[in-house]
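Supplementary Methods, section 5.1.

A reviewer requested that the exact input to the structure prediction be made available. We therefore reproduce it here, unchanged from the version used in the analyses.
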Amino acid sequence: MQRCAVFIALLGALSIAYAGAAGAEEIWAVGAPLELRSGASLGHRVLASITPGERLDVLQKGDGWVRVRTAAGKEGWVMEAHLDPTAPPFERVGQLEAEGARLHAELAGLTAEREHLRTSAGELEGRDAERTAELDRLLRENARLSAGERWVEWITGAAILACGLLGGALLRGFLAGRRASRIRL
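The structure derived from this sequence is encoded token-by-token as follows.
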């Protein structure tokens, strides 16, 4: 039980630390090379040197000092006056070039998708025209059938029935006349 609680606490602390690192604010060093110090004053020892234009992650802000992390992973304090939240021009040019390349790739993808959609739309319009023509044909046929235009079929059926009755009557009369001529005993 205690191990589980310790594990959960450790997992929570790691997730908070990771979330803080992932959401760190970016800032850039400006001016002459800066000294990364172990504390927030000039009296603390120098840990490393930071070159102008280097990107840093802000971890904490204090009275005129900022705790930062370098790209190499070193952490320390730098005077806030020597930091700028906007990227230096060479960094912005690189960012803009990368953004331009991304936008060109996205434009190429969207252009291909547009052509695909145009082709699909043309095919769908063709199918729609075929289906509209078929629907019109079916509607005309339905109207013809509903309006009683089946008189040709009715007359044909009546003629066949009349011929059958007439043929039956003639056949009966013919057979009846043959029977009368026989001699009965």
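Residues 1 and 7 are 10 Å apart (CA to CA). These observations are discussed further in the main text.
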